[in-house]
Structures are given as C-alpha cells and as structure tokens.
Design goal:
Layout (H helix, E strand, L loop, with lengths): L1 E4 L2 E7 L7 H7 L2 E5 L5 E9 L8 E8 L2 E6 L4 H4 L5 H14 L5 E2 L11 H12 L12 H15 L8 E4 L2 H12 L5 E6 L4 H8 L3 E6 L10 H7 L4 E7 L11 H11 L6 E5 L25 E6 L12 E4 L2 H12 L7 H11 L6 H22 L15 E5 L6 E3 L3 E3 L2 H11 L2 E2 L1 E2 L8 E5 L4 H16 L8
Parallel strand pairs: 7-18, 9-10, 9-11, 11-12, 12-13
Antiparallel strand pairs: 1-2, 2-3, 4-5, 5-6, 8-14, 13-14, 15-20, 16-17, 19-20
Helix pairs in contact: 4-11, 5-11, 6-7, 6-10, 8-9, 12-14
Length: 479
Amino acid sequence: MAAQISGISSTCSVASFKNQSPFDSLRSSTLSFSSNPSGNLSIKSLETRTSQKSSTICSAVLVEHNSEQMEVDTTLSPRVNSVKPSKTVAITDQATALVEAGVPVIRLAAGESDFDTPAVISQAGINAIREGYTRYTPNAGTLELRTAICKKLKEENGLSYTPDQIVVSNGAKQSILQAILAVCSPGDEVIVQAPFWVSYPEMARLADATPVILPATISENFLLDPKLLESMLTEKSRLLILCSPSNPTGSVYPKELLQEIAQVVAKHPRLLVISDEAYEHIIYSPAVHTSFASLPGMWERTLTVNGFSKAFAMTGWRLGYIAGPKHFIAACNQIQSQSTSGASSISQKAAVAALGMGHAGGEAVSHMVKAFRERRDFLVSSFRELDGVKISEPQGAFYLFLDFSHYYGTEVDGFGLIKDSESLCRYLLEKGQVALVPGDAFGDDSCIRISYAASLSDLQTAADRIKKAILSLNTPSNI
C-alpha cells in the first residue's frame, strides 16, 4: 500500500499469513513504514518502547526538513499509560483475523447477542431516517425517550424519576464513565468486586481515582461479602460499583444480600453506588432482579445505569442511560455536553419502540432469554463431565465463568507451559480453535469466561473442541 502526496512518499506493509501459520502471524504481526523520499520531508523512523517497570510510553519521530534533523516528542499522557487495553476486544479482534485467514474459529469472547434486533425496533429506526429525524437531539436525550425511561423504571423497577434525572448516552459504558468522572476526585477510591467487568478499574484510573478490588470466590457464587466490604471502606471510599446480573459471572444478587450491603453503605456518608443493571432482563427464574436504588435510603446515593444493547440485541445502536438524583445527573450531562453531545437521534427513536414492546421487553426478549437458558443448561451439563472444573451456575446474563486452574502447570509439547488463564486460552485457541477470554482480565486468574451468546450448534461444537483439548492434557502431579 503506497501513498504519494506532494512529493512525500511512504509505504506501509503488514505481515501476511503467507508461508506461515496464522497463529504465528498473530504472535509476530508487525506494522512497518519505509521511506523513499522524493521531497524535503520524510519519516525516518518510528519506535515505541514500553517497559513493565515504567508507566510511561516514550516514542519519537525523526523528521528531516531542509537537511536538518528534528525529533518530535510523541509521548503519551500518563493517564493513557495507566489504562490497560481491553482483553475482550483484543481477543475478539484476534479471533476475527483468524477467521478471515480461513481458520474455523468459534468466537465465544464478545459479549454480544447473536440475535437480530427485534423487527419493531429496527423499523422504528428506518422510519426515523425516512422521516428526516436525523438532526441533533437535546444533549440529555429526547424528552420522548427520557419520559419512556421514567415510565419503565417506575413500572419495572419501582423507581421514581423525572426526565431531568435521566441522561441518555452512547451506550451504558459512557454512562458509567461519566458518572465516575462526575463524582470522583483524585485519590478517591472506587470499590470494585472481582470478578469485574474489565472496564470498571480502568475507568476509575481515567478519573485519577484508585480502584480497590474486593475478591469474591466461586464457592460464594461470586457474590460480595458485606463484612469484607465494611472492612475495606475508608474516608477515601467514594464509589461502590455493583453489577447484577453480573458480567462476567452471571451471578444475581438476591434482595436479602443487597439489603445487607445497603446497611453497610448507609454508614458512610461519602459513599455512592453505581448499579449496573444492563443485563436485568436476561435472568433465569427463580432468580429475581432487584434495583439497588429501590432499597430503603439508597435512592439518594445510587446512580442506576442501564441500556439497550443486551436485552434488545442493540449493541450496534450504541445507547444507554443513567438515572439518579438531579445534582449528580446534571454533572454527567455537563460532561457529555463537552464530549460527545447527544446520542444518535435514530437510535433514540428505536429505543422508544423497544420500551414499548411490553414489560421486560415482551415476547421478543422472552424468546431470547429462553434460548440463552437452554444454552446455559447445555454448557453447564457438558463441562460438569470434566474432572477438576469448578462451576457456579449463572442465574443471569449469557456468560459462564469456569475455574480451570486444576489444569495449570501442564507442559504441552509444541505449545509450552499452561501456567494461567491467558496461556490456557491461547492453548484452546490454537488446539481447539475456540476464542475465550482469560479470567485475569476480570480479576480472577483461576477462571475463563465463555459467552453463550451464540447458536446452540456452535456451542455444541465448541464444547466438544474444548473438552478434547483439555482431555489431551496430562495434569501435573503437584496440582
């Protein structure tokens, strides 16, 4: 690939899969630039150095101009350097590259439903385009949508809000980030239960806050112990983030446990709560969803986040929202006004249609949940056949978070040592051609995450591949 602009010539080449394994290419893929100057400006070199001992990324571009050399500082902000890239995104991209290279990889890494957006929602978006509803909306979202959200929260969650206590954003992820930026000061602590969604700690770091990780074990169904929470709170504790149903574990907090947590929270005037309820409709009876803000004394200090991506299969529409006391919501709105401004007008029209489908999404969502439950039941039954694998049966969402640490320490010919969740996932990608996410991305290196937002036939094939790859291992005698 070459570009020629006003005497400047540069060539970009990317390593291909030719004459080597696609897996080798992914391990060693490079992006290089070569220069063939025909003018007085050329890029001579580009080098990026990273060090595990330093949080600073230093790089420089050497430029020739009129025979004089000048080094341009391309150092990145320490804030950027403190943030880890998302492993779920990285693994999904890697698996996609393998598929494009002809490797029949089954991708079970991304948290994205395999169902199409329900037709009534899509049609509402199409109608919005055809009717010219394609201009800016109010920064916080259209009054129509915010009113519909208030109605939903009242009828389904027992929460009373007015439209000025709602901000609609480009996905629930943006809503959470803006909330953290709005309420945290440098040095504040953000309490995050592990296993956690990969972005929570990184969002805290972006706000110059400190993530404090509280572990929950598989024997506790990955639910936070209120006593542990109470023991870890300090005067710096500003935010507690709860996610139920949970990504990555599928755990659902029973109301009684949330009440115990609320009693702890009530003792700390500075402590606010972000309740991430993005998976609330993907829940399997007898489990029942409880909104944290509905508990006594918690409305005033809870920021409730939800969206349309998961339950309504609208990941690409990019729409979420936050609800809470006006003081905090106005701050989130202010941040959004200087970043992205309002969300897509088309997506907002589609969201109104989604909220009009009936309680909890009506029959369309119920159909999806039924399919997810069938898939969950199959995978749980299948992996229970493997020795040493520990399972906490998920009560919601569409993830299985399995403890495979029994197999750590295994040496594999032609691959190397399986020492942790990341190396196990690499092994399963190469040996079984199944893309999964290592548990260390979620704060628990003993586990791996399997998304069952895929067809049952794909899951059956994937389970067979994983089991064959695992059964071919000789577990170390010391485990």
